[in-house]
Amino acid sequence: MKPTVLQLSAILIPEIREQLAERFDLHRWFEQTDKAAFLKAHAAGIRGVITGGHTGITRELMEQLPNLEVIAVNGVGTDAVDLAYARDRGIKVSATLGALTEDVADLAIGLLLAACRGIPSGDRFVRAGLWEQSPTPLAPLPLARQFSGMRVGIVGLGRVGRAVATRASAFGCPIAYTDLRAMDDVPYRFVPDLLALAEQSDALVVAAAADQAEGIIDAQVLAALGPQGYLVNIARGKLVNEPDLVAALQSGSIAGAGLDVFVDEPRVPPELYGNEAVVLQPHRASATVQTRTRMGQMVVDSLEAVFAGQEPPGRVA
Ligand code: 8YV
């Protein structure tokens, strides 16, 4: 008999979907209209859960799955899974560690470049036919901010933070970082205090885990970054105090931002829609065919490993 697996978030790659359907008795939670009736009929048989990094799983749902053995997170962030509770229950949790590093770092640099150089504003300007009306488009499109050589401050020097640092270094950017401790295997400057890092940076890139760092980017940090400073967030929305960020973008107390993540996705503060200083993405940093294929394969492999009594790849609990 195939092991029963509950899928909490969608997987778009056809080969992965085929493998899931082939190997598991798969139930899609998001397609269940009567969730209580579904749980009554199937909860006891569910041995595995697939979820996304942002979606995670509620403690309440875990409590209703008495025979759960494994949660395979299709992402690297595990802040939406109660890892302590999973450990207590002996439920193994895996994440797609290392599978999405390059893509997330690529998008961080893309967002920073897009925000500094006003790429989306320029694109909108051309598409609206405004270039022909204003052949020297200086008034509607102010001169941009140079990216090469910017002082880049990285908040959280994990896999993604390091990959951002490598890329920004290639643009001649001096790199500093803050983290829980200094790292002796990198050539970058450690700044223990986030406020000091913000003061000394032209751009802050948020790449930290969100488990214990909610709201660390607040009005004070944004004020320290200053009116010439840019913020990029490709980690989790809740690392940033969103009302403070909206206020900073509205008042010009920072120059701009590039955001892939938000506190209450898919809701984005509506004040940002008309703000040309911010570049917005719908949480797509890992959304390439190549990376999502690697991630999906790790999810399949994790489930199979646990059902075969083995250690899952990317185990975090
Ligand atoms: C994904 C993420 O968008 O890795 C994470 O933690 O949030 C993203 O890579 C998500 O997990 C896709 O399911």
From TrEMBL:
Gene3D superfamilies: NAD(P)-binding Rossmann-like Domain (3.40.50.720). The keyword NAD applies. Pfam families: 2-Hacid_dh, 2-Hacid_dh_C. Residues 109-285 form the D-isomer specific 2-hydroxyacid dehydrogenase NAD-binding domain. InterPro entries: D-isomer_2-hydroxyacid_DH, D-isomer_2_OHA_DH_cat_dom, D-isomer_DH_NAD-bd, NAD(P)-bd_dom_sf. Signal peptide: none annotated. Coiled coil: none annotated. It comes from the Bacteria. Keywords: NAD, Oxidoreductase. Residues 14-316 form the D-isomer specific 2-hydroxyacid dehydrogenase catalytic domain. Belongs to the D-isomer specific 2-hydroxyacid dehydrogenase family. This is 2-hydroxyacid dehydrogenase. It comes from Pseudomonas typographi.
